Structure formats: C-alpha cells, structure tokens
C-alpha cells in the first residue's frame, strides 16, 4: 500500500492533497493515514494466523488518543510504560485486559492504577520490582499477573541508544538469573506467573537477533518446565524496523513465519509489542520553508519545524526522507541542509538533501509517525504542533495546535518583595 503518493505533481496522503492540510491547519503539522495505520496493524495480526496471539501496540511510539482509538477498534492490545500511557489507553477505549506493562521504574501509584484497571500482565524487570508488586497486590487483596522480562544478551545491531537486550543495558533481568527469580516469584502469594517477556531493541532490520533471542528464551522455558513452572505466553517485544532510507527490514509476514516455524508446535500464546512498524510509515511531518540562506560553504533551508517537533535527527543522527509537497516543473536541484529555528547546531532535520526549494514551499518529512509527536517538546518556547488524521478524502484534526496560553498555563509568578527590601535582606558577601 502506498498511501503517500504524487498526483499531478502534488503530494497526497490517501485522497487528500497535503497543501489543503497546510492551508487549513497550518505548519508544522503531523499528518497520518488511517488506512496505512490499519494495514500495518493487520499485517502483524495476520502474520501469526490462527496461532493464539495478541498484538500489543507499543504506545510510546505514538500515544495520541485517536491513534490508540483506531487500534483499539481493531482489537489491539497495548504495551505501556507508565500510568500516563495506561490513562491514554483507557481514555481511547482500549481494553485494560489486553494491556502489558513494561518499564524498569514502575512507581507504586502506577502499579496500583494498573492493578485496579485489571491489566493483563506486568513485565517485571527486577527482583526489587517483583517484591514491591507482590506487597502492593497483597494490600489490595489481589493477585498480580506477571512475566519476567529477561535480557537475553543479544546484540540487536541497531543504534546504541535504542538497543536494550545487552547485558550492559538497564532493561530486564539477566537471563542466567531468571530461573532463580521465577522460583522466588512462585513462592510469592500475590503473584501469578503468566509468561515470559523479552525485548532486545528497536529498528531491527534483520531477523537473526530476534531468532537468537527466541532460542535463548525457549531454552529458559525448558529449564522452567523442569522446576514445574509452566508459562501461558511468550511476549517477544517490539523492534521490527521500517524503511527510512535503504534499509530492507523483514516484513511482519516474514517475521511471523519465522516465529511460527519455532513456536507453532508449542502451547504458548505469542504476544508482540510493535510500535514503529505500525505507526512509523503511517505519518509525515508537514513543514514550510521560512528562509533560504547561503552560508560560505553550504545552503540552508530554514523551515518552521525543528528538533522541538521531531527530535530523531538531532538525538540519533536519524535519516528521514524529505520530499516536496509540490514538485517543481523545472527542478534545478541544490544541496540543502534542512534546519529549524531552534538555537542548537543539532537542530537539523536533514543534511545535504538535493532539492529544488523556494521560500514558502511545503515539505513532507517522511516516516515521522513513530517517535515524532510523542517526543516533541516546548524547547525554545515553541508550542506543540497539530496532528491530523486522513481517512480517504476526509481530514480530522486529532490534536489541536497548542496555544501560547496553554503552554504557559501551568506556570505562575511568585509574590516578590519590593526590590529595595530584597536588597536589604541580601546575604552579605
Ligand atoms: N517494547 C518495549 C519494551 C520497548 O522498550 C519498545 C521500544 C517497544 C516495545 C517498541 O519498539 P518498536 O517496535 O517501536 O521498535 N525513540 C527511539 C525508539 C525508542 C524505542 C524504545 N523502546 C527512536 O525514535 O528511534
């Protein structure tokens, strides 16, 4: 499916000309395709066929309510990492009984909220967390469903900031200690062992690390069976990559087939936690060229989006394709650094891009649906952008652009003493 395409030289998402989105909602603005989002989720769901499974979308990738709402409507489960994400899932109509809760630092209040909501499973990441959860569940007269998130010490072969399955990472419990920890969990009265979880990193572009991790997980399940601990599900995490540039990641179908080759004969329900592969290529960031600027060695195109709206290039040196919304008839191309107005040299969206640009032109930054809006900030006191969902020929505003008053609403001035008094009470030096 190619929901992003040119029609008569004008870039469209589904049936909508992106110029009309910019005219109506202004820029910078995130724009998503509902059809692409749906197709991406369904690709995962279908990849596991008739084998018992649940696709738990990783909310962190894009937590906007209308995105969650659409996925909930398809029957999705959700992987959350905070009480805030749980609240979003519930607000969007998601089923708490399909929620798994990952994360190394779950607070008491977050655990309580998740126990009250009746989530499907806590993916426990340390011994200390196991005991805290047991105590809390006991106080509430409940049993907490758990899986241990194990760290299989597999190199995901991805950017170090988004690799999580190595011994040196803070995530999960060491796979060699897992048996002893499961044994302890089995003795705790307010826990119920449901499964085993594992997530090794993000933007993986080959199957090998996933399959390596799976082998280690399966070896562990055998060791657990020998001590009488049987599991109902295996949660294999997220991490399947998407194409930003030249990557050729496996499709959900390839991934599903490889998993079933190992898991079809086994009795475990399979849980997956994809985020990027569901929402990444379903969204773009629409921005407008404010100025062209000639520096001694290069040309800059200064656009109205920045690292405040899309942090990935600045934080990971990530490459995202940047294409014009209107193709010029005689495209004399120049190399541009596409940069934002923020006062940081790291504030770039793309470097040395060959484009034909004029002031006022619209650009689409592609594959921005995942880890885009949700990682945006108010840095440089920039208001957060709008988000728009396209469905066929229809355009829905799903997040209003933040106003200056909203940005300032939580802050207040303090009752200062008159300046003269302040001088009088100043400490002597
Ligand atoms: N499950 C767990 C436990 C995770 O930590 C993550 C991502 C996922 C699932 C979803 O992974 P995905 O399918 O989206 O790769 N901000 C970074 C990505 C950070 C990923 C963190 N964990 C980026 O923009 O590339």
Output the keywords.
25% strand, nine-stranded mixed β-sheet, Lyase, Ornithine Decarboxylase, Chain A, domain 1, binds ligand LLP, globular, TIM Barrel, eight-stranded parallel beta barrel, 429 residues, alpha/beta, 2 domains
CATH topology of the largest domain: TIM Barrel
Q: What is the number of helices?
A: 13
Strand content: 15-25%
The named CATH superfamily of the largest domain: Alanine racemase
**Ions and ligands:** ligand LLP
Domain count: the total is 2
Write down the overall mean pLDDT. Answer: 95
CATH architecture of the largest domain: Alpha-Beta Barrel
How would you characterize the largest beta sheet?
A: 9 strands, mixed
Rg measurement, Å: 24 Å
Helicity level = 25-40%
Shape: globular
Unreliable spans: none
CATH top level label of the largest domain: Alpha Beta
**How many DSSP-defined strands?**
21
State the secondary-structure class. Answer: alpha/beta
* N-to-C CA distance: 70 Å
Layout of helices and strands, plus pairs?
Elements: E1 4-7, E2 10-13, E3 16-17, H1 18-25, E4 29-33, H2 34-47, E5 53-58, H3 65-74, E6 77-80, H4 83-91, E7 99-101, H5 108-117, E8 121-124, H6 127-139, E9 144-151, E10 173-174, H7 178-187, E11 191-197, H8 208-226, E12 233-235, H9 252-263, E13 269-272, H10 276-279, E14 283-294, E15 299-303, H11 312-316, E16 322-324, E17 334-339, E18 348-355, E19 362-365, E20 386-391, E21 394-399, H12 404-408, H13 419-424
Parallel strand pairs: 4-20, 5-6, 5-13, 6-7, 7-8, 8-9, 9-10, 9-11, 11-12, 12-13, 15-17
Antiparallel strand pairs: 1-2, 2-3, 4-14, 14-15, 14-19, 16-19, 17-18, 20-21
Helix pairs in contact: 2-3, 2-9, 5-6
